[in-house]
Amino acid sequence: MGTVTLAEVPLPVRAAVLARTGPVLSMSSLDAGHNSPLSVRLETVTGPLFVKGLPDTSPGRAATQRREYEIGRHLGGLAPRARWETPEPEAGTWVRVWWDAGAAAAAGCRTPDT
User: Fold this and answer.
1) I need a labelling partner for 2 at 20 to 30 A (CA). Which of 19, 30, 53, 54 fits?
2) Does 8 score more than 70 pLDDT?
3) Nearest partner of 102 among 79, 84, 83, 86, judged by Cα
4) What sign results for the dihedral spanned by CA atoms 75, 61, 39, 20?
């Protein structure tokens, strides 16, 4: 799945993100992953954030993203902190999840030999 930038998402989605973050100093798109067309690291005036988002047009994909957020809220220090899950009606049908940004690698299965 291709990754879009914050500038490419619908205006209500972009406005909802900026209302949550305040001014964005810089943004870098991430091209890893398969579930979210919006996958960006934002440097904001309050610190770095990682934001994922997708249109809520595929119930399975949206549910997967919501579940990832729900699990992430309970990982307490094992992974970047899950901050918010924000399906605001004014942002159209997009679901977004937010984490503290940090050094991270794509999830994957590894065996003890790798």
Assistant:
1) 19
2) yes
3) 79
4) negative
Per DSSP, what are the bridge partners of residue 52?
Answer: 39, 97
For tokens 């091209």, name the residue. 31
Q: Which residues neighbour 46 within 8 Å (Cβ) at sequence distance 6 or greater? A: 21, 22
Token pair, residue 9, equals 């998402």
Nearest to 52 by CA among 112, 107, 113: 107
pLDDT, mean over the chain: 75
Cα–Cα dist 58/25, whole Å: 32
**Residue 44 near residue 25 (C-beta atoms within 8 A):** yes
